[in-house]
Design a protein that fits this description.
The protein is an all-alpha fold and 64 residues long. It is built from 4 helices and no strands. The chain has one domain: 434 Repressor (Amino-terminal Domain) (Orthogonal Bundle), CATH 1.10.260. Helix 2 crosses helix 3. The protein is globular and about 30 Å long.
Length: 64
């Protein structure tokens, strides 16, 4: 999921702060998650990232 999040951030030009807010996580958690140093439950962050990517995918495919 880390790679998908990095790709999403590149494509949307999102900052770690913006992503943290969208995921309901702290900036520190996102920073450590992306660096691979997060000592918490990465499966929780993975699940939040998955939900974010699914939301974005749905919103991109909705007709205007």
């Amino acid at each position: 999921m880390k790679e998908q999040l990095l790709h999403y951030m590149e494509q949307t030009r999102s900052t770690q702060t913006q992503v943290a807010k969208a995921l309901g996580k702290s900036v520190a958690v996102i920073n450590q998650y992306l660096k691979g140093t997060y000592a918490g439950r990465t499966d929780d962050v993975d699940e939040a990232v998955k939900r974010l990517l699914e939301r974005q995918s749905v919103s991109l495919t909705q007709p205007l």
